[in-house]
Structures are given as structure tokens and as C-alpha cells.
Amino acid sequence: MREKITRRKLGEIREDRTDWARVDAMTEEELERNIAADPDSDLPGVDWTKGRLVLPQRKQSVHLRVDPDVLQWFRRQGRGYLTRMNAVLRAYYEARRKSRTPVRLRQG
After folding, report:
1. Is-contact 77 84, C-beta < 8 A?
2. Residue 81 CB neighbours (<10 A)
3. CA-based angle 80:60:5, to the nearest 5?
4. Residues 41 and 48 sit within 8 Å (Cβ to Cβ)
5. Residue range 6-57, pLDDT digits in tens
6. Residue 26, C-beta contacts closer than 8 angstroms, at least 6 positions apart
7. Interatomic CA distance for residues 50 and 24, integer angstroms
8. CA distances, 76 to each of 1, 34, 42, 91 (Å)
9. pTM (two decimals)
10. Where are the alpha helices (DSSP H) in 1-108?
11. Under a CB-based contact definition with an 8 Å cutoff, are residues 74 and 85 in contact?
12. Are 84 and 76 in contact, with CB atoms under 8 Å apart?
């Protein structure tokens, strides 16, 4: 599953095209009706009152020796390759943690 993330620098942000004078002139009923009709306004059936903020854990910096071909492959994937390496390690960790299968290293 690959999500599309769009990043913009401050100077690249598009101009706001909202007609705020029109919004200010609307009644509360009209606003609610327009919001309900907007497919992007909210997810149907989601109760946001029970939502909670989950902040990601702070990453820890480590020195890690990686085979040259593995590092080169990740670097060729482009910007964010260290984040992708972390995601691969996390997926491996999660799979092993759930199965409680011990890791056995091959010698040689």
C-alpha cells in the first residue's frame, strides 16, 4: 500500500480561492447544508469526539553497517531512503514479535 504524499514549500503554496465574503454571508443552516453536501468534508459515520492524538516516537540515531549493495539499492529509491529502511526493519520486527519466532543467524 503506497500512499501519495504531496509536499510543498512555503513559496509554492497556491493562493486561497475561497470566497470568504460569500461564506460570511451564509446562514448557519446554509453552511451546515453545504458542508454535508461536500464529499471531502468528513468521513461518514466517524465519531471524532473519541479520537486521540498519537504522536510518533522520537527516532534514535544509530550507526549501522549495511552491505553496500543493499544501501545502494535503497539510495536509488530516492529521497527518504532511511525512512524506508526503518519501515522494512519495523515490518520485520512486527512480524517476528507477533509470531514470537526466535531469529537464528546463519554462520558463514
Report:
1. yes
2. 15
3. 25
4. no
5. 777 766 777 778 889 999 999 999 998 988 888 777 666 777 788 888 888 8
6. 34
7. 30
8. 20, 46, 38, 21
9. 0.46
10. 20-25, 28-37, 68-76, 81-99
11. yes
12. no
Residue 60 clears pLDDT 60, i.e. is over it: yes
Report the alpha-carbon distance of residue 104 to residue 102 in Å, rounded: 6
User: Quick check: helix, strand or coil at residue 82?
Assistant: helix
Locate 104 and state its grid cell: 537464528
Q: Which three cell numbers stand for residue 25?
A: 454571508
Q: What are phi and psi of 83, to 5 degrees?
A: -65, -40
Cβ distance 23 to 31 under 8 Å? yes
CB 81 within 8 A of CB 75: yes
**Side chain identity at residue 32, one-letter code:** E
Q: Give one DSSP letter per residue of 32-56, joined into a string.
A: HHHHHH-TTS--TT--GGG----PP
